[in-house]
Amino acid sequence: MYIKGIVKKDKKTKNLTSRLQPGDIALISHKDLDEIAALSLSEKKVRCVINTEKTISGRYPNQGPLILLEKNIPIFEVKEPSIFDDFKEGDTIEIIEDKIVYEGKDAAICHYLDEAKIEELLNIGYDNIEKELDKFIENTLDYAKKEKGLVTGKIPIPKIKTTINQKHALIVVRGKDYKRDLETIKSYIDEVKPVLIGVDGGADALLDFGYTPHIIIGDMDSVSDNCLLKAKEVIVHAYADGRAPGLDRVRNLGIEPVIYPSPGTSEDIALLLAYANHADLIVAVGTHTNMIDFLEKGRSGMSSTFLARLKVGDKLVDAKGVNKLYHSPVKAKHLASIIIGALIPIIILTLIHPVTKSFLVLLKIRFKLLFGL
């Protein structure tokens, strides 16, 4: 195999994707490559991916590598983490068989993950899933006891300027299929006009579809500056002790945000914020709801999500996967029905018009004379 391209590198894949161009070689350090990261890389049409971590560790069956495989994007692994320092961003490198070549010299040995190898590693993950499930359940129950203040009212909800009372609230999270689900419910957004709440990178998805978020909530690690500046209100998710890593970034943009100290994930507190402000209905897109979702996020349990959904109850409509539920292709029979329906009033109006009636009478007389009737 021979590949040549420009290197773009970052140890955080989500930071790298904004700089990638079609044909680039993505140099990452991403253990257990997840679906969202793989989708981001494939959307950028990278030539290949070089990973200094184990793309599939076997701890659980992460699905990211399968996405790259389906898109014909090769994945290579290297064991030398120092490769990040060996290349500068923008360097041109070559991959020749099992070697990475830079300026005509062998820089590192790489290992290609073909379909058989990916399947082998994923099978190890499937075999290990029961052990991970046991740990996941224990962690969820353990942390649920510590985080029960989320639903008992002991953790105060900050006051916000945005009015949610008796309105629908749409919460968009950067999760699996979030863009396709958002596209599927576009007519709902245009008609109902819900309050738009973007959780970190989910806010950029709203902007991509032509909507300005009313609220952005999160630790601000994956939302763009452009989106932050356009949003009507910004809420920084802080740790329970008050530390807020994303606060300085927001303030450096000249934005004074609301601070929301709370345990749990940003999507959980977005649900609780909408609920506490008396949303009539909460629609969630791209949320993380199962064990694989949470393992891909690097979390060992889902206590806060369990508690938040327990409190929000029947006000929540989860639109995750809705793009698979509803398809509306234009079929020939539907098109024929529309054409016939449009022609009927035209034909009726034509037949009752005086000029047309006179023409038909003359045509009738001509027909009788022609055939001697």
TrEMBL record:
Signal peptide: none
Pfam families named among the record's database cross-references: SteA-like_C
Keyword Cell inner membrane carried by entry: no
Keywords: Membrane, Transmembrane, Transmembrane helix
Transmembrane segments: 335-356
Tagged with keyword Zinc: no
Identification of the protein by name: SteA-like C-terminal domain-containing protein
